[in-house]
Amino acid sequence: MWRRHALTAALVLAAHLIKVLSCGEARGTGGAGGAGSESRARRYVGLYTGPYFDPAAPNNVTAQLGTHAYLPCKVRQLSNKSVSWIRRRDAHILTVDRFTFIADERFQAFLVEATDTWTLQVKYVQPRDAGLYECQVGTEPKMSHFVQLNVVVPKIEIAGESEIYVKAGSTVSLKCIITQALEEPAYIFWYHNDQRVLSYRRGLRDIRVERLGPDTIVGHLVLHHPVREDSGNYSCAPSNLDSASVVLHVLSGEQPAAMQHGNAARPAAPNAVLLTLGALTALWGMSRGPRVPSRGDPGRGVAVLLAPFIPLIRLLAFVVSTLILCHDEDDSQ
């Protein structure tokens, strides 16, 4: 029995050697047939005799919100095996070879034959797309390569307060600041009360975009000589990103600081008048000295006791009133 098994093993080995030798001869013959045989020989002879993942393939991909993400899976010596992409968080099969098995049309797989790379494309990336994805080869047992997708969400804001107060005829500069941006937006549109702001009015409106650093973009909107009709909501809307807004108030003669705090302006002149009158009253009272009531006045005893302290009481009243008025002035500012 053992001789029969040994003979079978010898025959299998001999067949394999004949195949290797025939492939080597084919390489020397040249031509198209020789090239095909050489390709097949490279696939099945060497350290790996079947499919394997390229160890240099990336396993971490970062994409910005709203852009396209590309997850590579380099499989060498794939032969006729199928390649599937699976979303790990819900074990959903996204693609098998070039066929898509999800209703979300943002997912698609394609093969780059020059690099033996099956790439999963995710269009218009959303925050929910972040996570782990599995590239699986249909061998027995299955082979898997994992790629982590990270989604970066840029921050967008308009510099300054949420409400801006300016005088008519002045210059207004609005800055739309985008940070943590991997890619510069294709455009930044400005809107005034849901109507797009255009820069065709030369000398009145300027719109421009500049990059500050590797991940910061600033969009500028400058309004020259604004009028009351320019008041309203202004928003900047970069491509594939959320928008930010601010409310502009163009004033004609009002005090911007007072309206910004929602209070009417308190004139400073009355406070100064009151302070002056209080000081004069205290000085006048101290110069005259205390007045002692006559014998017939009620409360003469109490008045006599308090008489020496009346100037001091008046002075204290003046100091207290001064502090109160100063506090009111601070509140009004």
UniProtKB/TrEMBL annotation:
Which region is the signal sequence? Answer: 1-22
Question: Which residue spans adopt a coiled-coil conformation according to this UniProt entry?
Answer: none
Keyword Transmembrane among record annotations: yes
UniProt-listed InterPro entries: Ig-like_dom, Ig-like_dom_sf, Ig-like_fold, Ig_sub, Ig_sub2, Ig_V-set, Zig-8
Annotated Ig-like domain ranges read: 51-137, 154-247
Tell me, what is an example of a GO biological process annotation in this record? synapse organization
Q: Where are the transmembrane segments?
A: 268-286, 302-325
Has UniProt tagged this entry with the keyword Ubl conjugation? no
Pfam families recorded for this chain?
Answer: Ig_3, V-set
Instruction: Give the CDD domains listed for this entry.
Output: Ig (cd00096)
The protein's matches in PANTHER family, at most eight in alphabetical order, are given as: DEFECTIVE PROBOSCIS EXTENSION RESPONSE 11, ISOFORM B-RELATED, DEFECTIVE PROBOSCIS EXTENSION RESPONSE DPR -RELATED
Q: What is this protein called?
A: Ig-like domain-containing protein
Q: Which organism is it from?
A: Pieris brassicae
